[in-house]
User: Fold this.
Amino acid sequence: MYASVPQDPADTPADDSAYLRLISLLDENGARYRVIDHAPEGRTEEVSRHRGHPVSQGAKCLVVMVKTGKRTKRYFLAVVPGDARVDLPGLKALAEGSYVSFASADRAEALSGSVSGTILPFSFHPDLELVVDPGVLEHEEIYFNAARLDRSLALDTQDYRDHLLRVGARIQPITAKETEAAVQ
Assistant:
């Protein structure tokens, strides 16, 4: 069963703009999703247990910085299955960059609009390019923290795919092979 959930303002933290923006976007586009409240948790493996699904159905969202020139950088919101790692050299090659690393926590939070561990698989910032690994789209639903440690969404994967196509996001392999996996 999918439905939007009317939000009680008393139930919403003061700085919950990313969560409210997400819910508004999903409702405007008729997306099918479920809200899941759970104990506060941001680690993919642990929160997957709280939500009751395989880790592979979680959408792990990481902000990656790629230097493309002496003074130029590009930021990517890399979305991979919860049991996978981001292919940093692959993202560097994608951006034709010279250096790649995870963005600092401050920069990642500023670009994503939420704290680490709650970053959405949606970009609302023009400087944050969305790249999604096809493995995220293999299940009927994807799960992710909804810009909060204590609330997640189960989103119909077709509705997420439709969003990616609407916004022109890249869907391409960005999962590291086990032998070359980056530490995350």
Q: What stands out?
A: Residues 99 and 181 are 17 Å apart (CA to CA). The first helix runs from residue 17 to 28. The mean pLDDT is 89. The longest strand covers residues 59-67.
